[in-house]
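From the shared-data thread, chain only:
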Amino acid sequence: MAVKGLDIFKLTPKTNCKECGFPTCMAFSMKAATGGVPVEKCPYISEESKELLSEATAPPMKTIKVGSGDTEKALGGETVLFRHEKTLVNKNLFAVELSDAMSDADVDAACATLQKINYDRIGEMMFVEIVAVRFAADAAKFAALVKKVADCGKIPMIVTTDAEVAKAAVAGAGAGAIIMGATKDNAAAMVDVAKAADAVLGVSADSIEALHDLVEEIEKMGYKNLVLNVGETSIKEAYANAVDIRTAAIKGNDRTFGYPSVVFANKLAPANTNLQIALASAFVLRYGSIIVMDEMDFNAALPLFGLRQNIFTDPQKPMRVEPKVYEFNKPTGNDPVLVTVDFALSYFVVAGEIERSKVPAYLAIPDAGGYSVLTAWAAGKFGAGVIANFIKEADVASMTTSRKLILPGKVAVLQGDLAEELPDWEVIVGPNEAMQLPKFLRDMQA
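Structure, as tokens:
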């Protein structure tokens, strides 16, 4: 960082008031210098100093908000190039492109499809967040289409280089819309439109050098709510630009390039759905903050959304579910109790198989540290004592008259100890694999 902890410390009251949440002014200053806490947390630093320090201690890549209310999403804000270095903080967004040249029937069909293309994976609902609307010829129809997109709960991306058309369209787009159309020829006019609408402005240029110059020019106009087009000329150029822009921002601390990137995969591979999916996969990994495609169906959504979730999961924090007792298939009060760990993937796999069995049951989830079954057992976080204490503390016995407690097959070794801890329960060793649960539960019920 350009600013050191001691530089910030000199501006604090040095009273160790603890109002910032830190025990001393020095502790706060050192944390603020790394960007770990905003300098605004100190109520006694002057506004002028806050403004200077906020810029100096901010992440090298600016966080840009798009959408509003329930649709609001954050882009950028990254501090590392690779997930394993720390974590990636704001996942990329997917967009599908429409145009005023399309028939009303085609637009309605596309919108209806987008509403259906969503699914829940490991507790996260995934869907296409943005619809890019490209101007073709009819300004009135274009503006109406942008409004329709906003009304459908999607974030509109207005794709046009005509400032007047953009101005008319953004009026119905709602807060947080994206205007994708600033070039060297219309930058001033587009900045005025974006400022008036408080919209995110997309910047495009013929080369990465020209893009850098144009962003500098727009920043001098006082506008920094930007996203950058990595280029539409060739796949090779777009990929290289995406990598170079992010590397310059993160490693070179070049704040001119410290903005999220937009990738028009549909322009890099026109009318080639399979190649667009492949490109989207590549740009999820390499710095496409918004990835635009011609369409999105389940064949594309399942792998792309899953890849995105995996890449943007914090490797420092296990994916966990809340430790508690979950009910499945409307238990009647005389149903078996299964036990597994709080690792999210384990939970959702087991939960899915219990639901598939159609057998009413309870699933007890103790605090196992967010690890898988064998890892938690090896670490001493999923032993007989842990399970028994949870069964008692959650008062599972009051939920069901059944006293059948089903263990994961991979920790069958716990059966004896758990039977001693819970003498009123029949401890049963379940299958090794979750996929075997439906037959196991149905056979038990028979």
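The domain at 325-445 is CATH 3.40.50.11600 (Rossmann fold).
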